[in-house]
Amino acid sequence: MTSLTFYGGTGEIGGNKILLRDGDTSIFLDFGKNFGRERQFYDEPYLSPREEKHLIYLGILPKISGLYKRDEGEPAINAIVLSHPHADHWDYIRYVKDSVPIFCGETAKTMIVARELASTGQRTEYRIANLSSSQGEQVYKKFHTFRTGDKLNIGSIKLEPIHVDHSVPGAYGFIIYTSNGVITYTGDFRLHGPQAAMSREFIDRAKQVHPDVLITEATNIVDAKMVTENEVAEKIGGIVSTTRRLALAGFYLNDMDRLTTFWQAAKTNNRQLAVSTKQAWLVHNLRDDKHLNLFGLDDPCIRIFQRKKKIRYAWENILMEHYPGKMVDARYVNAHQDELLLAASFWDMNEMVEVQPEPGSVYILSQSEPFNEEMEIDYNKLLNWLEICGLPLYQVHASGHINPDQLKWAIQEINPGRLYPIHTERPRLLATYISDLKTEVVCPVNGVEYKL
Ligand SMILES: [Zn+2]
Q: Fewer CB within 10 Å of terminal CB in the chain, N or C?
C-alpha cells in the first residue's frame, strides 16, 4: 500500500510535512515549522512551545511514536527529505531524534548549519544536533546531501532530486518512484527568477515520467505581483542612483539573489554594500560553493555592519578574525552616508539613533508584503521608525513563488493523474482555475491519509 498524509501546508502557507508510506518504508517530504499555527497559540518570547509534546497536543506536530527526541524506541520513519532551506520546510527537524537521517541539497545543508551556529535562542536539547564540538562539522553526520542527477534509494522508495529556482539557493523538486506509482513534488518554485531554467528542467523531467501524482505549491494563486528579479535589479539600481545620502535596504536574510542584486546596485553606483553580520556569516559559509556564483566578503564593495552589543558569540569572532578591515559600526555609517548602501531590517532600527540618516536618505523594502496580521503589526512598527528618521519607503520585490498562469502551464505540461495543491491559503481557487484540465484535484485535509 502506498499513501500520502499531509501534516501542515494544507490551506495554509508553509509548515509542509508530507508523510509518504510505501509498504514498510516511510519518509517525510519536508518537516517545516508552522509559523501561522504556532502564532495562534503562542506569544514569543513570553510563551513558546518548550517541548515537542506541547506542539503534538495542539496538533501542530504529527503524533508519530519514536520520532521525537524524548520518545522511547525507534520510529518507523526511514528518513526526512528536505526540499529547501526555508524554516517553514525544515525547522521542526530539531525535535526529531538524531538517528533519523536527513536528506537535503548541499547548499541547503550549509545554510541550515550556518543558521543554527549563529542562533542563540534554542535550548541545547533542541539544537538540530549537539553543537558543542568543532563548529558542528562532526555532529552533522545525520545530514546526507544530494545534487541534481543523484538517485536516492530509501527502502522501497527511489527519489530523483532536480534543482528548481526559488528565493533561496539549494531548492529542489522531486520525482519519487513508489511500488504503486510515481509522485512528483515541486517544493517551492518559480519561473520568473534568475535560475528559471532549473525549474523548467524539473517540469520537463516530471512530464517525461507521466506521474500519477503532482504535489504542488500554489502560494501566489492570490496576490501575484508579476515582477521579475531582473526588474527588481533595475528598479533598485534606479533608486540608489538618485539617492544623495544614505540608502538603506530591508530584505530576507537567506535570499541570496536579492543580496546579489543589492551588491550589484552598490557597485554600479560607486557605493559599498554594508551587510549585517548574519548575512556575512552565511556568505562566509557559502564561500566554497562553486555552483552559487556569490561574491566573496573580501570584495572591495563589501563592508560588514556590526550592531552595538555587549556579548560577542563564537561565530562573530570568526568573522572578525577573517575580515578585520571590513567591519564598520553606526558611527562609520553616519560619517559616510553617500558612500554606503546599508542592509538594515526592522530588527536593526535601534541603530538608527547613532546612524542618524541625513535628509535625502531612503529605505528600500525588498521582501514580501505582510500577508497576515502579525506581519502587518511589524510593518507598521517599521513605518513608525521610518517616519521618525524621515526615510521615504520604496517597495521593490519579486516573489519566490510561481505566478498563476505559469503554474497552470506547468500542471498542464506535467499532466498528472491527480494534483494535491498545498502551501496556499486557497487551494480550491486553484482547483477551479484549472478545472478545464484533465487532472483530478484533491485539496488535502490535515492528517487524512490518501491512497495512491
Ligand atoms: Zn520557500
A: N
